[in-house]
Amino acid sequence: MNNIHVILVEPVYKGNIGSVARIMNNFEFCNLRIVGKIPEKEDFVIGVHSEDILQSAVIFDSFPKAIKDMDRVIAVSRRQGAKKLVDFNPKQLAEYVNTSEKLKIGLVFGRETFGLTDEEADLCDLRCYIKANDNFPSLNLAQAAGVILYEIYSITETRQKQTSTSKKALIQSSIDYSIDVLESISIFKTDDDKNKIKDYLHTLLYRSNATKQMTTDLKKLFNRIHKAFHGKGMGWKGN
Fold this sequence. Notes:
By secondary structure, this protein is α/β, with parallel strands linked by helices. It folds into two domains: about 5-160, SPOUT methyltransferase, trefoil knot domain (Alpha/beta knot, 3-Layer(aba) Sandwich); about 170-230, no CATH class. Helix content is about 45%, strand content about 10%.
């Protein structure tokens, strides 16, 4: 579980931090990141036998800094809608994570009071939704973490290994290359058109957990498109 990082964004209640640490210990997770304040001493009481996780927690003063080195950033949220599309339920998230052991993955949990801001959610690559009572869907922070971490832990023994999944930089490189080719053939009428295609490619590659071969093949495809329009390729060199 060393590739999984639990990221708490400005937790409000001190007790929840200790509870999350204990749950992490229950399911063999050890990497805790906190955006905002360092946990108070009282958390060590609730986080019994998990003091090492609390003591080694890494503190960040902003959310972008906390996720900068992640290959995948997955927000756990109760919100859904036309602009808040759901990629996974907890079991699907667990399956995704367990085929991505070579990737550095951040599981993001928002504030107990109002969760993540829209800006913070937009920085996350994927979104997981925990289904609950429609009249009372908001889980306690530690309970939400428990649901997710248990699902990941429970299928560890039978997980399928996929060692060729792409690092974040390779996926972004393929997206940028594809957009550059489409720009070169004047496919976009507006910036909005460009952003929609970029968002589509982003969702496609992350949801499919793109392998290195997939990102390579995408560049090859768009290189051939460039060659068809301009008589030569765009200098594709592979990933």
